[in-house]
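User: Reviewer 2 asked us to show a designed sequence for the structure in our supplementary figure. I'm pasting the C-alpha cells here. Could you produce the per-position amino acids so we can include them in the response letter?
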C-alpha cells in the first residue's frame, strides 16, 4: 500500500505508531503552514553595475522602476526584499590565518568564501569550510538524500577555485560540480509522481503529507512527548524499536501535487526535456547536456533547468537549490555582441588584467549593462515561474521560498565584497520582510571599498554569516545559531557575533 494512502486522515500517524498499553493514544498537532519552506540561490559571477541593480535610498519602500537590471520584476516589489550593508568575511588583503597575514585573489575569495564564510587554503586555494547549501540541506531536506540540488546550464569549467562556489567537503581540492543534465534531474523525479488525487489537504495529516513530511517528521512531536512520560519498560522498548525502524526505512511521503499532469503544465515532459537538449547525456563534469553550445545552454537549457528546479520543490525532493551561472561566458547571443567574456568585460579591459593601457570603461560598461539586464531577465524568469505555482489559498510557491540573487562581487572592477548587492524574492513562508530595502550595516560602516590600489579593501559591513543563520532558522533549523569559520578578517578568532540577521525578519 502507498504510504500516502496509508497516512490519509488525522489518524494516520497514530495508526503507524506502536500500541502502548500503558499510555493513552495522542493526536497529531496541526501545522500553521502545511507547505515546506525552501531556499534558492541564484549565483552570478563578476559583480554588476550597482546603480542599475539597487536604489539610491538605503532604506524604505522597495521601488524597482528605473533599475534596468530588474525591469521585468517591477510591480512585484511587495514580494521582494533588497539588503544593504552586508559584507563577506573573510576577505581582502589582510586575512589573518594561522597567526599570519595572508593574501588571496579577490575572485578566489569571492567564490570560495561566499557560501562557506571560510578562508581559502593557502596551498590549494580551495575553501577551508563547507558551503551553506550542503550544511543546511543536511538539516532540512526530507528523506535520505541530504545533498542540495546544485545545477548549471553549463557543464564544463567548474574545476578551478574561481568558478566553484558549492563545497560538499572542505578544503580537499575536489570541486562539487553542478548538475547540467535535465534528463538526470527529470528521471530522479518521475519515480516520485503520484496520481494527483490529493491535490488539496482535507485534514491536518493530509496537509503534512502534501508538505512532503516523512513518517518520522509527522510523528516527531508525539514521539518526544511520549518519551518524556512515565511508561512501562516494555513500552519504552516498543517505542525505541519503532523509532529505530522508521530511521532505517524512512522515505519521503510524496506530495499530492507531484504528478505528471503538474509537470506537463510546467512544460516538463519527456519530449520537452529531450528538446531542451537533455537527451544528449550530459553528466557532472562533462561538456553539458546541450551540445556545448553556449546560446542553447544559457537560454533553452536554463529555462528547462529552472522548471525542473520548481518541480523538485513541488515534489519536495529538495528544499535547498543553487543555480550556478558560470563565470567565463562570452555573450554573443540574445542581441548581445560582447567583445570578450564576462569576466574580462567586468574589468573594463576585456581580459583578466586589472588596469593598464586597455582600461576603457566607456567602451565596456554598456556591455556590462546588457549582461546585467540579461541575468536580471533570467532571475525574473525563475521568480515569475515560482510565483505562478499555487500552494494553498492565495499563496504561491514563491511565497514559501526565499529566492536569492547572490552575486560574487559588488562591482566587477572594484572587486569589492562590502555592501553586497543582495535581492530576495519570496518571504520564506512569511518569515522575511518584503516590499522594503533594509540597511543592515553597522552605524560605523562607511560603505563599500575597492580593490584598486588595495585601498581599504576588506573593511566594514555586517557579516554575511548572520544572513545565513537567519535563513537556516527560517527553514526550520531553529537551533542553528552560527555559521562559517570566521565573521571577521581574523579567521583565527572564529565567530565573534553569532545569531541571525534580525533586521530582515518580518
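Assistant: Here is a per-position design you can include in the supplement:
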Amino acid at each position: 500500500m502507498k504510504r500516502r494512502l496509508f497516512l490519509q486522515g488525522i489518524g494516520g500517524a497514530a495508526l503507524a505508531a506502536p500500541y502502548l498499553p500503558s499510555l493513552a493514544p495522542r493526536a497529531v498537532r496541526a501545522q500553521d503552514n502545511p507547505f515546506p519552506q525552501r531556499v534558492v540561490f541564484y549565483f552570478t559571477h563578476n559583480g554588476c553595475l550597482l546603480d542599475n541593480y539597487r536604489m539610491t535610498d538605503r532604506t524604505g519602500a522597495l521601488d524597482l522602476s528605473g533599475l534596468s537590471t530588474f525591469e521585468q520584476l517591477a510591480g512585484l516589489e511587495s514580494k521582494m526584499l533588497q539588503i544593504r550593508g552586508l559584507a563577506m568575511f573573510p576577505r581582502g588583503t589582510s586575512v589573518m590565518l594561522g597567526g599570519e597575514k595572508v593574501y588571496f585573489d579577490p575572485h578566489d575569495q569571492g567564490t570560495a568564501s561566499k557560501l562557506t564564510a571560510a578562508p581559502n587554503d593557502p596551498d590549494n586555494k580551495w575553501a577551508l569550510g563547507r558551503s551553506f547549501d550542503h550544511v543546511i540541506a543536511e538539516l532540512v531536506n526530507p528523506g535520505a538524500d541530504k545533498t542540495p540540488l546544485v545545477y548549471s546550464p553549463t557543464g564544463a569549467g567548474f574545476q578551478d577555485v574561481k568558478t566553484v562556489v558549492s563545497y560538499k567537503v572542505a578544503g580537499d581540492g575536489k570541486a562539487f560540480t553542478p548538475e547540467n543534465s535535465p534528463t538526470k534531474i527529470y528521471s530522479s523525479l518521475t519515480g516520485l509522481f503520484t496520481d494527483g488525487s490529493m491535490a488539496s489537504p482535507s485534514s491536518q495529516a493530509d496537509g503534512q503529507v502534501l508538505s512532503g513530511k516523512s513518517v518520522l517528521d509527522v510523528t516527531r512531536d508525539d514521539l518526544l512527548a511520549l518519551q518524556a512520560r512515565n511508561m512501562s519498560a516494555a513500552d519504552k522498548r516498543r517505542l525505541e524499536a519503532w523509532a529505530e525502524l522508521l530511521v532505517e526505512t524512512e522515505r519521503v511521503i510524496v506530495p499530492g501535487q507531484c504528478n505528471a499532469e503538474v509537470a506537463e503544465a510546467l512544460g516538463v515532459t519527456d519530449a520537452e526535456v529531450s528538446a531542451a537538449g537533455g537527451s544528449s547525456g550530459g553528466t557532472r563534469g562533462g561538456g553539458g547536456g546541450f551540445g556545448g553550445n553556449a546560446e542553447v545552454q544559457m537560454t533553452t537549457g536554463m529555462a528547462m533547468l529552472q522548471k525542473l528546479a520548481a518541480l523538485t520543490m513541488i515534489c519536495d525532493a529538495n528544499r535547498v537549490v543553487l543555480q550556478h551561472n558560470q563565470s567565463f561566458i562570452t555573450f554573443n547571443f540574445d542581441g548581445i555582441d560582447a567583445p570578450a567574456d564576462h569576466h574580462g568585460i567586468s574589468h573594463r579591459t576585456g581580459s583578466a588584467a586589472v588596469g593598464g593601457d586597455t582600461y576603457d570603461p566607456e567602451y565596456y560598461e554598456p556591455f556590462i549593462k546588457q549582461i546585467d539586464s540579461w541575468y536580471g531577465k533570467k532571475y525574473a524568469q525563475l521568480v515569475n515561474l515560482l510565483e505562478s505555482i499555487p500552494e494553498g489559498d492565495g499563496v504561491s510557491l514563491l511565497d514559501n521560498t526565499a529566492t536569492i540573487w547572490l552575486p560574487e562581487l559588488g562591482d566587477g572592477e572594484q572587486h569589492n565584497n562590502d555592501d553586497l548587492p543582495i535581492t530576495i524574492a519570496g518571504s520564506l513562508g512569511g518569515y522575511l520582510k518584503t516590499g522594503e530595502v533594509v540597511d543592515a550595516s553597522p552605524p560605523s560602516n562607511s560603505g563599500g571599498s575597492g580593490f584598486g590600489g588595495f585601498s581599504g579593501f576588506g573593511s566594514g559591513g555586517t557579516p554575511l554569516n548572520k544572513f545565513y543563520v537567519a535563513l537556516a532558522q527560517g527553514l526550520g533549523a531553529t537551533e542553528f545559531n552560527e555559521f562559517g569559520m570566521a565573521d571577521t578578517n581574523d579567521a583565527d578568532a572564529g565567530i565573534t557575533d553569532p545569531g541571525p540577521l534580525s533586521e530582515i525578519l518580518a
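For the response letter, you might also mention the following. Residues 361-387 form the longest helix (27 residues). Residues 37-201+256-504 form one domain.
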